[in-house]
Amino acid sequence: MSSRTFGSAIRRREDPRLLTGLGTYTDDLSLPNMAHAAMLRSPHAHATIVSLDTSKAAKAPGVLAVYTGKDTAPALKPMPCAWLLPNAGLNIAEYPLVALDTVRYVGDIVAVVVAQTPYQAYDALDLIEVKYKTLPAVVDPEKSAKGTGAPIHASVPGNQAFKWTVAGGDADAAFAAPGAVVVHDRIIQNRLIPTPMETRSALAQWTAATGELTLWNTTQNPHIVRFIGSLVMGVPEDKLRVVAPEVGGGFGAKIAQYPADFLTCFCAMKLNRPVKWTETRSENYIATTHGRDHVQDVALCGTKDGKITGVRGTVWAGMGAYLSTAAPGIPTILHGLMLCGPYLIDNVKEDVYGLYTNTTPVEAYRGAGRPEATYLLERLIDRFAHAIGKDPAEVRRINLIPKFDNGHNVATGLTYDSGNYHGALDKIMAHVDYAGLRKQQAEARAKGRYMGIGICTYVEVCGLGPSQVAGAIGFQGGLWESAIVRFHPSGKVNVFIGTKPHGQGEETTFAQIVSSELGVDVNDVKVMHGDTDKTPMGWGTYGSRTTAVGGAALAVALRKIKDKATALAAHLLEAPVEDMDYADGRFFVKGAPAKAKTIQDIALMANVAWNMPAGMEAGLEASSFYDPPNFVYPFGAHVAVVDVDPATGAIDLKRYACVDDCGPQINPMIVEGQVHGGVVQGLGQALWEEAIYADNGQLVTGTLMDYAIPRADVLPEIEVLSTVTPSPHHPLGVKGIGEAGTIVSTCTMYNAVVDALRPLGVDTVPMPMTPERVWRAVQTAKKGA
Amino acid sequence: MAVPVSLTVNGQSQQRDVDPRLLLVHFLRDVLGLTGTKVACDTSQCGACTVLVDGIAAKSCTCLTAQVDGASITTIEGLAAPGTLHPIQEAFWNKHGLQCGFCTPGMVLATHELLRQNPNPTVEQIRHGLEGNLCRCTGYQNIVRSVQEAAKTMNGGAR
């Protein structure tokens, strides 16, 4: 591999348009004669609809139509769940696009208004008269399992969507072993609201004469929108074009398929004119999927000298009122299979109950299942270390899997690709001077100051993933990726990819791959994505998979181009192919680099095709559909240092440092940016963020005034370091970095705060660790003492 | 009922009759087609809609069009001459101060205001100065670096 720009922190090619206001997001689009839709959403968490009168709204100024479930049900199939988790008794309740007789969460759609302007559409919503008979609601998954509230779906006994078990080794035996040290914990994984800065939006255009529908949509995976949209709406895939223009962040919330998007299409088809719908932020908070929401009863056992022998637990995962597109796989496959973490743990067992609750559906949120696994494991390890009187870093060191280059099997059945976990731990400990920090802590404690140090090591499964595995675990799609590379006669290149970058910068990093593989100037490469009519099929951007899988597809396509270019160059230089050599975009006969054909020469000659070898087709274009042989497993070690004031509960985050290993970095600047953003989102869960529902199912944190995402003034500089351990199976060795920070920073922060307060007897603080909660934890510990 | 407004947007004079309740952000986006200005909340928390009103940053989602009758508005589209970047935009590009780009127009214009008030801000002053603008991608660190670089450039390279 030559490396013209691979590894360079070049500026992003997408930025000039974004910086000048020329980036076009879905809501920025307008079409001639466009109308505007607005959704009437249930104000109750659980109720039957006694009556629904839309007549006043229908007569309001500018209103073109009002639709209810009676209008939409005959035309639109219910929303499908696309992760059919096997061996789990999966019970999928019907998920209508518009509620027919029952609403099951605050936000369930009851009616749709279409008007000439958005203002008129919202005005008309207020004129729809709905009488509800409220029913008891349940918002907590554990309470849902115990029968609180009224049954949510008649077809679902006990509100149980599934029960899934992961088991490896013999956890019960490990816990029963003589002399085993056992620590328990009960963990509330606070429910989070993803909050991409761009809310969701859809714009639909229908051409009745040809039956063609175009949907511009805020999505991380336009090809999946086409696939599922086609099933729901009955529009054939070849006539359904889905375009994801600029997308303003997703974090998992733009993976799912949503009723409102297909309803916007329905309106466009009914009215025969373009219709746009864009959610408000308040609407986004109740209608776009949430994340996390586990109640975890977990335990870890080990020996007195620090060897972890088993992990066991029960999890109640809140799924919301309906099963969203990929929801069943998140608290199960992506969570339970990661319970060994980066450690040699031979015995694991966890039962996961998925429960319907009267809340917004829960889906993937940055990390999706893996933060919940890392968090419980890292929290238990700190408890274990405390119980046996060992330093938490030392306990991790004892249990980390030794360095491996090509495959390590863990008890949950996964095969990690490569890892040097001790390397990451050593590097972070040296960087922060861990021993020095512990010394400072002792001095601080002697002076009555509550300093805490959190240290966590982690591994994540990402680069989802082999399609055969996807099938085996019930994912209703493939997980390969695709790329087409097209050389134009002038040697300029277009790359068409099936994934959908939405802030991660692959227009730049993928151009860097092209430049490095074939010696093309990075500015001569344009990467196209997001339009199902113009790009090859692909499964989208989530699970840190775009570079890990899509980047591999691109590399394979480029190598096909290189093979063809080599053969054509040999022909033109009148040499046998086996005598050819290549360096930095130049093809030449071995030993004669001066007489070379550049890739641009070859592109021209292949496109004009005046002198092709026998049997070689014209053009210089290749495609690849790359199905990875395994997942990739990035890893790392993070440290947080805090001061906590027990009198006020205030936490002062003094330092946050991390070592992450995502393999070779195509663009270190972009990697660092992903780490910053990921770490801060994880800190958000630890310190500020929680979607709070009242017992009656009202979302109390329904705006950005009440739901606290991190702001610039509450964060320290994050110190970003890395190690480089290539994946043995990826053509470029790269792994993924989008989710790493979020997966581990939450628990690193938590462990630091608890470490600070241990002298006061505090051994737990609920998240988010607001000053009030910290203060209460201190008071509770004082009473107990 | 419509009210006549006359204002200058990015140097161009605009006269319209508008709905009295029409927010400035919707006037910019829907009437003038200047969609660089974004809406990301309903409650004035996020700052994505920040524009300059007579040179001073304002959240255009919290301002009626009729309120700014007679004013001169600068949006992200008008911050630099076509084909060029303002030093703040250039600095955000250099320092990877944006990822998805949705908060960026507001963040750039809030930075303009910050540097207008304080041409040489400390890191702490930058973080405090931008706390009214939310970004979910960057963790703000590279935004801080961008503002530092912009300040340096706008001060002629000296600090």
Secondary structure elements and their pairing?
The complex is a heterodimer of chains A (785) and B (159).
Chain A: H1 15-19, E1 35-41, E2 47-53, H2 55-58, E3 63-68, H3 69-72, E4 102-103, E5 109-115, H4 118-125, E6 129-134, H5 141-145, E7 160-168, H6 171-176, E8 181-189, E9 201-207, E10 212-217, H7 222-233, E11 240-243, H8 259-271, E12 275-278, H9 281-287, E13 294-302, E14 308-320, H10 333-336, E15 347-356, H11 370-388, H12 392-399, E16 408-409, E17 415-416, H13 421-432, H14 434-446, E18 450-459, H15 467-472, E19 481-487, E20 493-497, H16 506-518, E21 525-528, H17 546-572, E22 580-583, E23 586-589, E24 596-598, H18 599-608, E25 620-626, E26 635-645, E27 650-661, H19 668-687, E28 718-722, H20 740-757, H21 771-784
Parallel strand pairs in A: 1-12, 10-11, 14-15, 20-21, 27-28
Antiparallel strand pairs in A: 1-5, 2-4, 2-6, 3-5, 7-15, 8-13, 9-10, 9-12, 13-14, 16-17, 18-26, 19-20, 19-25, 22-23, 23-24, 26-27
Helix pairs in contact in A: 11-12, 11-20, 13-14, 16-17, 19-20
Chain B: E1 3-9, E2 12-18, H1 24-31, E3 50-53, E4 56-59, E5 72-74, H2 87-94, H3 104-117, H4 123-129, H5 141-154
Parallel strand pairs in B: 1-5
Antiparallel strand pairs in B: 1-2, 3-4, 3-5
Helix pairs in contact in B: 2-5
